[in-house]
């Protein structure tokens, strides 16, 4: 009897071979701990930071619908309700489109921080260039966040971890700007003046962004200094003013990565995309969404009919301003000229059909992959030379630089548009510069922030209440995750 | 016997028959009392014994019959009848690593036998649990052929995978019940309470034990053939607007907003196209099943093969399902004390599928497509704008090309060695090997501007293959003995090793020649560019377990058992890898006590209870590790090419550990009036702690919105399910010709979330497009309850609007004819903080009723089941201004006093479409599931054609559903814990009329 029990127990023990059986690693995977071991890893990590630039459409579109010059449009007055509500300035902390801006930009910050926290892991010549670009991009994402949300949590030395939302406070706007400035100063110092690869940013882009940040910080002389540096390099010019360039092609495929481009976000139509992950698209989601509904005709492709310029902005151009018809498509006129057909979606007075479309970012005929509405390849000109000139003009007027250089910069932009030079000065000059920014940069995502930073938003935007609407609410979900650690923005 | 020397020694022979049925009994054991001399009856029930003398006593024993004592007199031939023994016929129940007589079972266990399965004749074995077993809720994922069903045992306890463990012939089976041929199933046992603790970390959602049929010993080869042919059709079409009504309502919609209607002149539209009529068709289903079984004295066998072919009621063969199975079961005694059983199963399934779920599904398009458009319009350019999903469903069907094939071989070898008195050692090796292939072709096609299905430039073929393997090794040792006639002890100790691994390889390529399915293969496609992708993954899951069980019975009426299992698995990090799962059960057969009152009616009364801890580990593996995602990060170079990078994947959670279920059950079994009435009642409570919640939303500052990243899996909550289950059955032979068998079961579920760590609530589900998530998990509420606005009628005039708090925050200022939302927090404004619980997708009560009657050669049976108290969200109406509408809109608000339920139509800004109780309906239903009538020919008639049994039958499935719900089918559900009960226009379960035949020869 005992013998048998012994046999049994032995059998069990032999077969069991202890818990070694379950000590395994997942097949074919790399852990975050085994990364940043070579230059190639740093490059792969850098690509991942640039990746979130493709999701920048969410920030641009939200800023556009918030502005005075754009109606949301879409299929109906409730299509993408988050934008419709922002357009009417009745948005609340529950807003998916606001949350997207929060999530996508913080995702960019996270990926940049991943490389920055591993900056000492491996040494190789030229590593600073990678780190400089990472810090430029972190600054770009944080700059979006501070403009949309005001105070935000920051963590300069590493990635956010789960639980940080309970302990890291929302830093003051000044602190956030200081952090952004710090990143950009590092970027300017450590970046080459020419891009390492054409899609990557260089020192001038960093300087231009730094100048822009200074403008928002109301550090006008510092802004003027950085922006003037960019202008004085001679590396950039207004498109259409050199060689056989034609101004009309600035926003065509031909005008991409041109001499006017200081910082351009690259898009492509060679990779498919779906609605389940818009931020995964390497196409410009804004473009498909901006297309004319049910469009059938030449030049353009159809889209979802969002981002509709108002009659007010159309009429703000003088009739000899070349920019009017290059920036805004009058669909009735176009249809009668070309025989194109189209559908009208949202007809709401406040947010609906205007008869005008954002021509700069309409989908052009091309062979992009499905879903074709999400994979339009139009690059987004994040900072173009005209913007640099206008910012420099503004900084000079408001700072100690004076009206003379300001008028010079302003008139370069006006002249290209077929307009005569202005000779005004002082407040009048400033107003002209503001107006020029509106006309030059319509549909590019700048208008709302320009109005807010110059305290003109409440006068221009229906339903806008200052200071409440200077920033957007922190998404409701985030407030709940942070429990009592963060306070909601005033008025929301 | 050799000592007997005088001449009275003689030879005795005879036959043994069943006293009731009067048929010969083979294999009856015959023993001469007080000696070890004996024999058994042969196939014809005959026996012969030598060397007997008058006065010897023969004992005739046979399982299920009373032992017969016969004293040898001067006769030489004895024709004997054995009486069946009800007590002994007591069914045995498979309880995992052992069997137990039903009488002594102390856990809550339900069983569905082959008789029930035969009557139900389900296409999918899971359906046999619906309405037949208390506490089990089966919800199909839709009516398309081959659709799997979700099985939920005693409510919903986890936010992850709620699937019960399926054990096929003792071996963990991951293939889905759909791949098993229902005719091969002998019985299905469901372990509902702590008794499942023998399966430790696998048992938390209950255990379904499937035992397949085997042969019988001492039986000549017996052939069984069954076949049926049936026709399926939809049970329902939704009432929609015809073209004229559509035209009128669309124009009114625009007029109400002061806008121009895109439809213009609507005269002469007539009835237009009835898209539902166009897509639904009558589709056939056919089944053949052949088996042969039998056995000799030491061996039994069964071989079977089956074929099932089913087409869809939408799309016909474009949504077909084929299943072929073959099975071999062998059971043999290698030696007196060594038995070997083996089972080999082959499954082959072929699937073709249409887009049958949610936005963009064929039925969704049939509901929303404008009736003014003709069936032959493939490209909607120039037609009314129907948004970017709605396309011609017929075109969509025509352009759908896919096929999936699964080949699976599974089996096991099970040895039992009785190596010593009362001791046996069993070893079992089981395996599954499955290969799944999928091929899909997307042709170049233009459905019209913006349509999401458009492929304008190039076609695409997707192909992939997945191989899944697993093996299980079980070794367990059982000691069974009885001491002093009153102490019965069974001790089992064992171990189990399980490994599941596999890999997937897939790719896509453009440039399929001739834009044709015929040539759709990566090899023949010629495309270049970024859409030509390839991908792969591999996984390796391992578990090691030790377990022990002690069962002790005192005086045959005090029953105790205790179990302990230790599991370790590589799903979790080293520190959290090991879990211990104890449980105990007890029972008392009160009716056996001397002091139990002598009540004639009561045959049996047992009280039982169980308590234990079980685990659940069904979450993605390696969630504790911080790994890198490849290919998720990509950017674009300046010439429009893709550059890929590497980025952190899913946010890791190093602390992740098992989900723990504490189960408590108390109940009784009562049998009355000669066991004719059987009553089982249970109260149960399941407390799930450390709920594993995959994709638990966490703060966006951790970068979870980045491509390839995502929310971590977190142990983040507790849920309690409790309720009462009652099973009542009655069976009797009223006369020699008429017998009845009927049963009724009812279960209640009360589900409540008791804790969530780190968040106030968790959201899920989907409603409309771009709306906040409608389902929530929140403390104090049932899991997945609906969270939205409460309505209180319709504003009849401007004065009512003015008197009500502003609804502007919902998207638009209210106007007369709009829904009036309730200011639940009374803060003078209607906004998102006014949302409340507006429905519960979990039924309060589920009921099942079965009846079968036999009258002479006729048999009749019916099954029905019901859910009471669950809510369903109507989410198949696209919130788009120009799509077709359900007919209830004809009763819309058109002026003061016209209606107080259906809001006005408008193409202007309105808050009428936000998620409110207007879209929530009572999903209670009663379904008449099966009605069947059969006729069995008399054996005398059949003898001539050498057939022992021939039955013809007619059966209708899913006959009628009594419900107030306005969608296709109140039973369909996604099965997601948070997000269930939302109807995306589910493909309805078909009504099926069948003619069938079974024969035995």
Please compute the radius of gyration of chain A using only Cα atoms: 26 Å
Distance between the termini of chain A: 80 Å
Main sheet characteristics of chain B: 22 strands, antiparallel, barrel
* Oligomeric composition of the shown chains: heterodimer
Q: Class by helix and strand content of chain A?
A: mainly alpha
User: What class, by secondary structure content of chain B?
Assistant: mainly beta
Continuous helix count of chain A: 20
What is the strand and helix layout of this fold?
The complex is a heterodimer of chains A (492) and B (1001).
Chain A lengths: L1 H15 L22 H13 L5 H10 L3 E4 L7 H7 L8 H22 L9 H23 L14 H4 L5 H18 L12 H14 L3 H13 L28 E5 L19 H6 L1 E2 L8 E2 L2 E4 L1 H6 L5 H6 E3 H8 L17 E3 L21 E5 H14 L4 H14 L9 H15 L6 H7 L3 H4 L15 H6 L11
Helix pairs in contact in A: 2-5, 2-6, 3-4, 5-6, 6-8, 8-9, 9-10, 9-15, 10-15, 15-16, 15-17, 16-17
Chain B lengths: L9 E9 L10 E4 L5 E3 L5 E7 L4 E5 L6 E4 L5 E6 L3 H4 L2 E3 L4 E3 L7 E5 H7 L15 E5 L8 E5 L11 E4 L2 E2 L12 E7 L15 E6 L6 E15 L9 H14 L18 H5 L3 E13 L3 E14 L3 E20 L2 E14 L10 H7 L24 H6 L2 E20 L2 E20 L17 E24 L3 E24 L23 E21 L3 E12 L8 E12 L12 E15 L11 E9 L5 E7 L10 E14 L4 E13 L2 E2 L20 E2 L1 E17 L4 E11 L1 E7 L4 E4 L10 E4 L6 E4 L2 E4 L3 H6 L15 E3 L14 E4 L5 E11 L2 E11 L2 E4 L45 E3 L2 E12 L2 H5 L5 E15 L18 E2 L7 E10 L1
Structure commentary:
- The complex is a heterodimer of chains A (492) and B (1001).
- The mean pLDDT of chain A is 93.
- Chain A is 46% helix and 6% strand.
- Chain A is built from 20 helices and eight strands.
- Chain B is mainly beta.
- Chain B has eight helices and 52 strands.
- In chain B, a hairpin with a 3-residue loop joins β26 and β27.
- The longest helix of chain B has 14 residues.
- The N terminus of chain B is likely disordered.
- Classes of the chains: A mainly alpha (492), B mainly beta (1001).
- Chain A: Pfam families: SusD-like_3, SusD_RagB.
């Amino acid at each position: 009897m005992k013998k048998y029990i012994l046999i049994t127990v032995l059998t069990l023990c032999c077969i069991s071979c202890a818990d070694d059986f379950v000590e395994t690693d997942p097949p074919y995977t790399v852990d975050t701990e085994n990364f940043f071991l070579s230059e190639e890893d740093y490059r792969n990590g850098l690509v991942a930071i640039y990746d979130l630039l493709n999701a920048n459409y969410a920030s641009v579109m939200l800023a556009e619908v918030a502005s005075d010059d754009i109606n949301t449009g879409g299929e109906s007055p409730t299509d993408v309700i988050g934008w419709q509500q922002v357009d009417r300035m009745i948005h609340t902390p529950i807003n998916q489109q606001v949350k997207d801006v929060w999530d996508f930009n913080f995702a960019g910050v996270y990926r940049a921080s991943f490389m920055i926290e591993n900056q000492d892991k491996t040494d190789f010549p030229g590593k600073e260039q990678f780190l400089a670009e990472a810090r430029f991009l972190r600054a770009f994402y944080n700059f979006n966040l501070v403009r949309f949300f005001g105070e935000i949590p920051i963590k300069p030395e590493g990635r956010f971890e789960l639980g940080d939302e309970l302990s890291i406070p929302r830093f003051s706007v000044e602190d956030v700007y200081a952090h952004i400035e710090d990143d950009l100063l590092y970027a300017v110092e450590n970046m080459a003046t020419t891009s390492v690869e054409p899609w990557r940013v260089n020192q001038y882009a960093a300087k231009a962004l730094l100048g822009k940040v200074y403008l928002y910080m109301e550090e006008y002389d510092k802004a003027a200094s950085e922006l003037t540096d960019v202008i004085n390099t001679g590396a950039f010019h207004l498109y259409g003013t050199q060689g056989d360039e034609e101004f009309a092609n600035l926003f065509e495929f031909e005008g991409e990565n041109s001499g006017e481009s200081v910082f351009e976000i690259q898009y492509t139509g060679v990779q498919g995309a779906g609605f389940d992950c818009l931020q995964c698209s390497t196409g410009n989601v804004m473009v498909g969404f901006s297309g004319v509904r049910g469009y059938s005709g030449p030049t353009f492709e159809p889209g979802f009919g969002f981002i509709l310029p108002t009659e007010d902005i159309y009429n703000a151009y003088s009739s000899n301003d070349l920019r009017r018809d290059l920036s805004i498509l009058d669909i009735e006129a176009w249809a009668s000229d070309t025989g194109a057909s189209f559908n009208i979606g949202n007809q709401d007075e406040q947010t609906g059909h205007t008869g005008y479309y954002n021509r700069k970012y309409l989908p052009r005929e091309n062979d992009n992959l499905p879903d074709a509405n999400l994979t339009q390849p139009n690059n987004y000109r994040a900072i173009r030379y005209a913007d640099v000139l206008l910012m420099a003009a503004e900084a000079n007027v408001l700072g100690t630089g004076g009206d003379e250089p300001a008028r010079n910069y302003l008139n370069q932009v006006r002249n290209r548009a077929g307009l005569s030079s202005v000779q005004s000065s002082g407040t009048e000059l400033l107003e002209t510069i503001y107006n020029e920014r509106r006309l030059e940069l319509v549909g590019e995502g700048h208008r709302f922030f320009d109005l807010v930073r110059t305290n003109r938003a409440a006068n221009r935007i229906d339903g806008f209440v200052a200071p409440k609407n200077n920033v957007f609410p922190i998404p409701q979900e985030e407030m709940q995750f942070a429990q009592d650690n963060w306070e909601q923005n005033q008025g929301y | 016997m050799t000592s007997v020397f005088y001449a009275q020694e003689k030879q005795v022979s005879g036959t043994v028959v069943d006293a009731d049925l009067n048929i010969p009994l083979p294999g009856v054991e015959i023993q001469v009392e007080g000696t070890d001399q004996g024999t058994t009856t042969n196939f014809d029930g005959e026996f012969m014994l030598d060397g007997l003398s008058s006065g010897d006593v023969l004992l005739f024993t046979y399982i299920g019959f009373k032992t017969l004592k016969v004293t040898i007199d001067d006769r030489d031939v004895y024709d004997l009848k054995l009486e069946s023994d009800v007590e002994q016929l007591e069914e045995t129940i498979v309880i995992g690593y052992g069997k137990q007589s039903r009488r002594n079972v102390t856990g809550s266990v339900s069983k569905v036998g082959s008789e029930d399965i035969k009557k139900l004749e389900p296409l999918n074995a899971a359906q046999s649990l619906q309405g037949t077993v208390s506490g089990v809720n089966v919800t199909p994922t839709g009516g398309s052929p081959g659709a799997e069903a979700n099985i939920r045992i005693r409510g919903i306890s986890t936010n992850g995978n709620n699937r019960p463990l399926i054990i096929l012939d003792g071996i963990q089976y991951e293939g889905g019940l759909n791949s098993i041929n229902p005719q091969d199933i002998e019985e299905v046992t469901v372990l509902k309470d702590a008794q499942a603790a023998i399966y430790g970390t696998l048992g938390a959602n209950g255990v379904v034990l499937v035992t397949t049929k085997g042969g019988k010993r001492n039986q000549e080869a017996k052939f069984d053939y069954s076949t049926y042919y049936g026709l399926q059709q939809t049970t329902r079409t939704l009432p929609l607007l015809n073209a004229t009504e559509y035209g009128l309502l669309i124009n009114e919609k625009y007029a109400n907003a002061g806008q121009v209607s895109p439809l213009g002149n609507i005269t002469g539209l007539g009835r237009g196209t009835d898209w539902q009529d166009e897509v639904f068709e009558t589709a056939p289903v056919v089944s053949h099943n052949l088996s042969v079984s039998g056995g000799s004295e030491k061996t039994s066998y069964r071989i079977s093969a089956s074929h099932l072919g089913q087409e869809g009621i939408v799309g016909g063969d474009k949504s077909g399902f084929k299943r072929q199975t073959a099975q071999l079961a062998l059971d043999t005694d290698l030696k007196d004390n060594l038995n070997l059983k083996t089972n080999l199963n082959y499954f082959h399934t072929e699937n073709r599928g249409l887009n049958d779920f949610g936005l963009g599904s064929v039925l969704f398009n049939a509901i929303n497509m404008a009736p003014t458009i003709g069936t032959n319009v493939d490209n909607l350019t120039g037609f009314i704008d129907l948004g970017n999903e709605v396309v011609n469903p017929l075109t969509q069907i025509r352009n759908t090309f896919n096929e999936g094939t699964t080949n699976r071989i599974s089996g096991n070898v099970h040895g039992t060695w009785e190596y010593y008195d009362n001791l046996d050692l069993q070893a079992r090796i089981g395996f599954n090997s499955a290969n799944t292939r999928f091929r899909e072709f997307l042709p170049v096609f233009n459905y019209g501007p913006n349509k999401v299905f458009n492929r304008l430039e190039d076609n695409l073929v997707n192909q992939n293959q997945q191989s899944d393997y697993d093996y299980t090794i079980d070794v367990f040792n059982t000691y069974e003995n009885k001491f002093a006639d009153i102490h019965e002890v069974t001790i089992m100790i064992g171990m189990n090793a399980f490994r599941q691994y596999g890999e997937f390889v897939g790719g896509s390529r453009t440039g399929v020649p001739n834009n044709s399915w015929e040539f759709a293969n990566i090899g023949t496609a010629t495309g270049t560019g970024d859409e030509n992708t390839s991908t792969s993954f591999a996984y390796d899951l391992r578990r090691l377990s030790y377990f022990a069980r002690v069962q002790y019975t005192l005086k045959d009426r005090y029953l105790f058992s205790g179990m302990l299992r230790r599991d370790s698995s590589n799903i979790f990090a080293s520190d959290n890898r090991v879990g211990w799962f104890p449980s105990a059960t007890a029972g008392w057969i009160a009716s056996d006590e001397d002091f139990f009152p002598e009540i004639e009616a009561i045959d049996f009364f047992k009280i039982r209870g169980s308590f234990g801890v079980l685990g659940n580990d069904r979450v993605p593996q390696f969630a504790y590790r911080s790994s890198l995602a490849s290919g998720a990060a990509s950017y674009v170079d300046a010439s429009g090419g893709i550059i890929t990078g590497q980025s952190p994947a899913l946010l890791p959670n190093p602390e992740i550990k098992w989900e723990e279920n504490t189960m408590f059950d108390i109940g009784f079994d009562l049998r009355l009036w000669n066991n004719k009435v059987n009553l089982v009642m249970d109260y149960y409570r399941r407390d799930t702690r450390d709920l594993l919640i995959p994709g638990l939303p966490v703060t966006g500052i951790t970068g979870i919105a980045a491509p390839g990243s995502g929310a971590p899996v977190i142990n983040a909550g507790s849920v309690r399910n409790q309720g009462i289950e009652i099973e009542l059955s009655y069976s009797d032979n009223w006369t020699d010709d008429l017998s009845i068998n009927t049963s009724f079961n009812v279960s209640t579920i009360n589900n409540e979330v008791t804790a969530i760590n780190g968040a106030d609530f968790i959201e899920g589900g989907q409603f409309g497009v771009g709306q906040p998530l409608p389902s929530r998990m929140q403390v104090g509420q049932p899991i997945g309850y609906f969270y939205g606005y409460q309505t209180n009628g319709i504003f009849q005039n401007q004065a009512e609007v003015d008197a009500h708090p502003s609804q502007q925050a919902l998207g638009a200022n209210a106007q007369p004819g709009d829904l009036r939302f309730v200011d639940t927090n009374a803060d003078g404004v209607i906004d998102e903080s006014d949302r409340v619980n507006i429905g519960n997708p979990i039924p309060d009560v589920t009921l099942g009723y079965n009846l079968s009657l036999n009258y002479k050669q006729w048999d009749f049976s019916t099954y029905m089941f019901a859910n009471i108290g669950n809510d369903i969200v109507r989410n198949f109406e696209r919130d788009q201004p120009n799509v077709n509408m359900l007919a209830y809109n004809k009763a819309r608000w058109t002026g003061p006093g016209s209606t107080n339920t259906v809001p006005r139509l408008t193409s202007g800004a309105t808050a009428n479409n936000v998620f409110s109780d207007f879209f929530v309906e009572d999903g209670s239903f009663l379904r008449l599931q099966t009605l069947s009538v059969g006729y069995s020919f008399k054996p005398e008639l059949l003898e001539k054609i050498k057939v022992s049994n021939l039955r013809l039958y007619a059966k209708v499935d899913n006959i009628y559903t009594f419900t107030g719900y306005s969608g296709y089918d109140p039973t369909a559900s996604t099965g997601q814990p948070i997000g269930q009960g939302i109807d995306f226009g589910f493909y309805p379960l078909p009504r099926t009329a069948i003619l069938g035949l079974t024969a035995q020869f």
